[in-house]
Design goal:
It is built from 5 helices and 4 strands. It is mainly α.
């Protein structure tokens, strides 16, 4: 399986063959969209794993190795997502057309997860990020270095998520 830019169709094929394809596909898309909204450029296919239970029942693992490049000002314009979403890899540049291509290429329609679902999911995750970003930094302010991290990361992540939400509005 190619573990880069266009791995989504291959991942979809694998997930469609699992015990709970609908749940696993929803989980994968949620994680992929979260990484897009957070500017997490390291979320490539090899950071997704299947966990096997009894009788070889496979479920997608929780997301791990999530790091946002938005805190590095020199990289913000150059950084790209590790996996494209409908051909779009640039941070803050998601579009409805890219989500349409993603839904078709990712075999989502086979599970009744259409482009409307993708748009709604991207909006829901983006709104949650925007609603919780400041309070999360406030809550963790006692951790050494958190204020410095906040100074580098909070505004660019809010800008990235806001830009994406604006681009996919009706």
């Amino acid at each position: 399986m190619g573990f880069h830019r266009s791995a989504v169709p291959e991942i979809a094929t694998v997930l469609l063959g699992t015990f709970a394809p609908h749940k696993n596909m929803e989980h994968f898309v949620e994680d992929l969209f979260f990484c897009c909204l957070m500017g997490a450029t390291c979320a490539h296919a090899k950071n997704y794993a299947l966990l096997f239970g009894s009788e070889n029942v496979a479920f997608l693992s929780p997301l791990y190795d999530v790091a946002s490049m938005l805190g590095c000002s020199e990289m913000r314009r150059k950084a790209r997502l590790a996996m494209s979403i409908g051909g779009e890899m640039r941070l803050g540049r998601m579009s409805r057309q890219a989500l349409e291509r993603f839904a078709a290429a990712g075999k989502l329609e086979e599970l009744s997860l259409d482009v409307s679902w993708c748009i709604s999911l991207m909006q829901d995750i983006g709104k949650k990020i925007l609603a919780k970003e400041a309070s999360l930094f406030d809550e963790l302010a006692c951790i050494p270095g958190m204020e410095e991290l906040r100074a580098y990361l909070e505004a660019p992540r809010v800008e990235n998520a806001s830009s994406i939400l604006t681009c996919i509005e009706f």
